[in-house]
Design a protein that fits this description.
Blueprint lengths: L2 H13 L5 H8 L3 H8 L6 H11 L3 H6 L16 H7 L3 H15 L1
Helix pairs in contact: 2-3
């Protein structure tokens, strides 16, 4: 059992304005008693974790392991391959300014 996971689930439900177990139970397709068990750290299947995270719009890493933030799945990072293209597309004066700024940061 994971009391901490249950607490995170309760937190997510509260922050999303879900006060009744029936609401999330219906969305996931389980009984209210199942939601109650989960909020007290009872075991969850992978399918149910995926469903709950989707319904509550929370990160599975956060819900299961407490890693990161509740909404960390929303943050996106541009792939590193896009950066060289972004730099090469800069006009020479802007490229010079960028190089100067990077030198300042390095020094």
């Amino acid at each position: 059992m994971s009391e901490a996971r249950g607490k995170r689930l309760r937190t997510a439900m509260y922050r999303r304005g879900i006060r009744k177990h029936a609401a999330i139970a219906a969305a996931v397709g389980v009984n209210e008693s199942t939601i109650s068990r989960w909020t007290h750290g009872g075991p969850m299947t992978v399918d149910n974790v995926v469903a709950v995270c989707g319904i509550l719009d929370v990160s599975a890493d956060w819900l299961l392991l407490g890693r990161g933030e509740m909404e960390s799945h929303r943050y996106t990072v541009q792939p590193a391959v896009a950066l060289p293209h972004a730099v090469t597309d800069l006009l020479p004066p802007t490229l010079e300014q960028l190089a100067a700024a990077l030198r300042t940061l390095r020094d």
